[in-house]
Amino acid sequence: MNNSRLFRLSRIVIALTAASGMMVNTANAKEEAKAATQYTQQVNQNYAKSLPFSDRQDFDDAQRGFIAPLLDEGILRDANGKPYYRGEDYKFDINAPAPETVNPSLWRQSQLNGISGLFKVTDRMY
């Protein structure tokens, strides 16, 4: 296969992949959020009781060495200045309880993952 044919084939594969991703996102955007079933609520409540969620050490550890927030509020932009990633879209209130539809442990992990910025890990390592 010559390079120009391989290049055209690569472009087609990329276009089809991007188009299929857009179709999935469009389909998901039309669905309304559903309430948790009684079973899900009960499982999540029992799970929450089984773990030490009052222990906030993980949050203290995640914020240790914090120096400054991300530039431009964590917004990444393309060459034309259009935002393609907003860190704020993935932040969770670290004091908010998990919704009934979400496993409490996963909610807590998402809260921890939302802590971002510039951190000093050790001397000369940021």
TrEMBL record:
Residues 1-29 form the signal peptide. Its EC number is 3.1.6.-. InterPro entries: Bact_Alkyl/Aryl-Sulfatase, RibonucZ/Hydroxyglut_hydro. Keywords: Hydrolase, Signal. One of its GO terms (cellular component) is outer membrane-bounded periplasmic space. One of its GO terms (biological process) is dodecyl sulfate metabolic process. GO terms for molecular function: linear primary-alkylsulfatase activity. This is Alkyl/aryl-sulfatase BDS1 domain protein. It comes from Shigella flexneri K-227. The lineage of its organism: Bacteria, Pseudomonadati, Pseudomonadota, Gammaproteobacteria, Enterobacterales.
